[in-house]
Design brief:
With about 220 residues, this protein is mainly alpha-helical. The protein has one domain. The radius of gyration is 17 Å and the shape is globular.
Length: about 220
């Protein structure tokens, strides 16, 4: 229970802090720094990217080995890199609240799938996970692109800045996933894993609903 409490706290804390936005501090770092500043801000953005990380936690629960984890995370990375780089470079963005609401739906989707929701409650097999991870990666990348375009990117080197930000996102993702993968894989050896699995995936559902309501409220009140 102590492990689960710590695990839950780490993922619940960002929901209350709402630290996943565009800050004046980040803007100052980008304005005064070079391409390394974009890497730094990208890494920090992913480390506080509770919605992205919650989805990845749901994916990791479904996987059984290191090779599978690398494969699925690579597919997710490819998906969000495509829309992050192209969306920002081409200047295409969507409403921040709406895209984050769709990302919240991806968290709900993964928790629902992990709990056997498709088979148990809908009577249909789960969609191909590799395809869904890639599709949701595209959506997450569009959210990251919209967030990046909220910054003043200055003049020149646009593509280099976008790629640097994306590199930072990948580094932040790796650093965030290392302890998550360790905790989940370590817990699989414990008798309490089944209870932990159920509790954690119900938490994904609840957190996803919370994020969805929060983002839709922000959209309709804007």
């Amino acid at each position: 229970m102590r492990r689960f409490g710590i695990f839950t706290f780490l993922f619940a804390l960002p929901l209350f802090l709402m630290a996943h936005g565009v800050s004046e501090v980040d803007q100052e770092i980008l304005s005064k720094g070079g391409l390394l500043a974009y890497i730094r801000v990208g890494a920090g953005h992913m480390l506080t990217g509770y919605d992205h990380l919650l989805f990845l936690v749901g994916v990791i629960f479904y996987l059984s080995g290191f090779r599978d984890i690398v494969k699925f995370i690579t597919v997710f990375t490819l998906g969000h890199s495509i829309t992050l780089i192209l969306g920002t470079y081409l200047g295409y963005s969507v409403n921040e609240h709406l895209i984050d609401a769709v990302i919240a739906l991806s968290v709900i989707y993964k928790g629902f799938e992990n709990l056997g929701g498709f088979e148990r409650w809908l009577g249909v097999p789960s969609p191909n996970l590799l395809f869904m991870v890639f599709a949701f990666g595209l959506i997450h990348g569009l959210g990251l692109s919209t967030r990046l375009q909220s910054f003043d990117l200055g003049e020149g080197q646009l593509l280099a800045k976008v790629i640097s930000f994306n590199i930072g996102i990948e580094l932040g993702q790796v650093f965030a996933l290392i302890p998550i993968v360790y905790v989940i894989n370590s817990w699989k050896k414990q008798k309490s894993y089944d209870a932990f699995y159920l509790a954690a995936n119900y938490y994904l559902l609840i957190a996803g609903v919370f994020l969805l309501v929060y983002q839709l409220s922000g959209y309709f009140s804007a």
